[in-house]
Specification:
The complex is a heterodimer of chains A (123) and B (236).
Chain A: H1 3-7, H2 18-27, H3 32-59, H4 62-79, H5 82-96, H6 106-120
Chain B: E1 9-13, H1 17-27, E2 30-34, H2 37-41, E3 51-55, H3 68-74, E4 80-84, H4 89-97, E5 102-105, H5 110-129, E6 132-135, E7 138-141, E8 146-149, E9 152-155, H6 158-169, E10 175-176, H7 177-185, H8 192-209, E11 213-218, E12 222-227, H9 232-235
Parallel strand pairs in B: 1-2, 1-3, 3-4, 4-5
Antiparallel strand pairs in B: 6-7, 7-8, 8-9, 10-12, 11-12
Helix pairs in contact in B: 1-5, 6-7, 6-8
Classes of the chains: A mainly alpha (123), B alpha/beta (236).
Chain lengths: 123, 236
Amino acid sequence: MGAAEKLGPEYNEVDLNQQKFATVKALGADDPDFLVELYDIFKQRVPELLDKMESSMNQGDDSQLEKAAHALKGTSGNIGAEKMMKICEFIECSARNEKRSNFQEYLPVLKESFQKVCSLLQP
Amino acid sequence: MKGHPEDTYTITLDDDSMVHQIIEKATKIKTVGMVDPKELIDNLDSYNPVGIFVDINLGSHDNGLEIIPTLRSHWPFCPILVVTGTPTEQTISRALNSGADDFVRKPLIPDEVNARLKLRMADAAQKAAKEVVEFGDIVIDSAHRTVDGPYGKRFASPIEINLLATLANTEGAIVEKDALKMRCWGQIKVTDNALHRKLHAVRQLLKDISPNVAIETKYGVGFALKYTEQTLEAAS
């Protein structure tokens, strides 16, 4: 079984939704500093939230996992990081409903997608 | 204002500072970004925003919904918009009943954020101008806590005047029981009996000043203010 089947439809989402990304970029059309700052916050905040998700997974703390996944869903959504957003949405819902899942297997996928998105963030 | 931006600004309470930035750019109005609700609650008197955005999932902090009644009672006419990543019917109705005016969804759509804020700012300006509300043949003056009608003028308690103004501001539409409690008492939990006692007092007050305005009970739903023009002879 390939990773896509194992992890569900979220795996097949694009890393960056170009339409949503364009909307955010348009906000900084006359102010490149705005985008630089926004990307910096994103690059700083995502690893922190991924760490929180990982430690709550390790501790089996579903409530903390739900919060961290919710926060990362929002942060990814801000710039159109679609795959991360959808995966976090799935983890948030599963953790809220106490559905045990293969959460750990999503971490490398989230980290990989984060790296890809970062490489696309050019002001 | 004391030591804070004197020009026009909003306040954005969200634990993700990207949201502060996006809201500021989308609305083209400077925003004072905050992460911790306590920072705002402890300094209410220092601010005079033209709008407030509150994330209702504030990460490790309290639920954003809990502070809305405090914000609403401090700034009766300031638009409060909740920001939510999970806009369920329940969270939206709870937010509106707590005193919020509107909501925006995450991921934020900049044009939507801007349109909703500007619309609510226009509404707020209209409401503020209506600190004196006319309904039928009565005039409710919230600032002076008086109600004036064809039979004369009466003073009312703060809760009574708030209750009457809330009903009058909805132009005769039904206000749900819980929404009415929230608008009049804020976070304080009150029994149905307490609400009925206040409604009774307001009904007496209305009888003293006008034969035409009365509070109708819609059983199981809420309350509405009604104006029925009667001749003075019929009323007597």
